[in-house]
């Protein structure tokens, strides 16, 4: 296919006749500001944008005139709803995805290793590729408009962009649950889950940004204190419990298994309304994606971000060699019948060897960080 957008929320009809620059890069005082600027497609991240952000971030990272980096999105709806790896007509899809994932993960690593405080204001939809642009940075500020998800198992992929690093580090089995089911977290819950470091009401964000810019040679601690003070002034939904609060022990128990079949077995045996709902969700996902994701998080729990990204690059290329990704994009984004025909179609048919093979070295084509 010529059209690949890794976000179930992006309307691909809006992709044509884009005139804006996909990303704005500017210096405000001593702050480097990255603004995702494709509001019509929920600020989806494409290769051009990656190639603009990466060198600028590296420059700011090593620049004595820059105190911090802020990344945000325009349009009021999204921070960034995912990756956009549309192939230009005529270009071979395979080589584009080889390049796209490589450069995207290199950018994710640059964010994770940035020495300047990196503050992602995730005021809106933040999924997939958008998570990779935020979660590895030192500070992530969620608002009541934040909607977080890693929905990749629904399109025959896996939660990449370093998902194998941050997800297994969330409490208990929460990360594995989010990874397998694509569960959407909203607002304050994004912070409660540990994906965001702060929660600040959306209307307070412009003032918070101004105060960040006004800080004189700030330490990380100064920035942290400032964000804390904005969080303290943001009482919205403070009384509302965490959406998964009453299920967190169920999640830890039901999602503790050395295999996806084991998890499905736990859910079946449990029979509660919550368990049945998760079973139904998992039954719609690519069986291959579920098994890859389970192993990805298992390995990722004890790997550095760099080693996780090398692993994920191998997985991304394995998914491009398989067929579920193309079928997932067709069913969710192109034909929109929401009825993908996965191959293999059941967990039992996905062998351990076929999963393990996805993790094997690409030799000369491995990602080098
Ligand atoms: C990325 O998006 C920008 C803005 O819409 C556009 O100008 C650019 O051509 C796109 N790049 C690719 C590779 O699609
Ligand atoms: C910034 O933090 C340092 C310690 O890291 C502290 O000494 C200083 O007073 C703080 N500055 C402001 C403006 O809060």
**Major beta sheet summary:** 6 strands, mixed
Average pLDDT rating? 93
Strand line-up in the sheet with most strands: 2-3-5-8-10-13
Structural class: alpha/beta
How many angstroms does the end-to-end distance come to?
30 Å
Counted beta strands: 13
Q: What top-tier CATH class fits best?
A: Alpha Beta
H/E order of the elements? EEEEHEEEHEEHEEHHEHEHHHHHHHHH
Large-scale geometry:
globular
Q: What share of residues are in beta strands? A: 5-15%
If you compute it from the alpha carbons, what radius of gyration comes out, rounded to the nearest whole angstrom? 20 Å
In CATH, the homologous superfamily goes by the name: 2-enoyl-CoA Hydratase, Chain A, domain 1
Enzyme class: hydrolase
Family: Belongs to the enoyl-CoA hydratase/isomerase family.
EC number: 3.1.2.4
Pathway: Amino-acid degradation; L-valine degradation
Relevant terms:
six-stranded mixed beta sheet; 2-enoyl-CoA Hydratase, Chain A, domain 1; alpha/beta; single chain; binds 2-acetamido-2-deoxy-beta-D-glucopyranose; globular; four-stranded mixed beta sheet; 369 residues; 12% strand
């Amino acid at each position: 296919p010529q059209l690949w957008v890794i976000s179930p929320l992006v309307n691909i009809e809006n992709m044509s006749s884009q005139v804006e620059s996909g990303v704005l890069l500017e210096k405000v005082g001593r702050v480097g500001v990255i603004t995702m600027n494709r509001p019509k497609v929920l600020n989806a991240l494409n290769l051009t944008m990656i190639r603009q952000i990466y060198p600028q971030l590296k420059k700011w990272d090593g620049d004595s005139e820059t105190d911090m980096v802020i990344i945000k999105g325009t349009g009021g709806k999204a921070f960034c709803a995912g990756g956009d790896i549309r192939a230009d007509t005529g270009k071979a899809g395979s080589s584009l995805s080889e390049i796209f994932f490589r450069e995207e993960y290199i950018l994710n690593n640059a964010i994770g290793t940035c020495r300047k405080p990196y503050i992602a204001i995730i005021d809106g939809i933040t999924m997939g590729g958008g998570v990779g642009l935020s979660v590895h940075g030192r500070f992530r500020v969620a608002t009541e408009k934040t909607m977080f998800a890693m929905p990749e198992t629904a399109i025959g992929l896996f939660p990449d962009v370093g998902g194998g690093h941050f997800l297994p580090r969330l409490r208990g089995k929460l990360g594995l649950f989010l990874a397998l089911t694509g569960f959407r977290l909203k607002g304050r819950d994004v912070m409660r889950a540990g994906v965001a470091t702060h929660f600040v009401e959306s209307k307070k964000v412009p003032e918070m940004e101004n105060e960040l810019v006004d800080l004189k040679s700030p330490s990380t601690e100064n920035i942290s204190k400032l964000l804390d003070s904005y969080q303290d002034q943001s009482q919205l939904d403070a009384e509302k419990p965490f959406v998964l609060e009453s299920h967190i022990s169920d999640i830890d128990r039901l999602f503790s298994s050395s295999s996806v079949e084991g998890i499905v077995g736990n859910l079946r045996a449990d029979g509660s309304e919550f368990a049945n709902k998760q079973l139904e969700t998992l039954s719609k996902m690519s069986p291959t994606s579920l098994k890859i994701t389970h192993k990805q998080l298992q390995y990722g729990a004890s790997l550095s971000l760099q080693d996780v990204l090398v692993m994920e690059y191998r997985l991304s290329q394995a998914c491009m060699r398989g067929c579920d990704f193309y079928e997932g994009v067709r069913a969710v984004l192109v034909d929109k019948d929401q009825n993908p025909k996965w191959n293999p179609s059941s967990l039992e048919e996905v062998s351990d060897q076929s999963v393990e093979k996805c993790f094997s070295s690409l030799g000369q084509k491995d990602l080098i960080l």
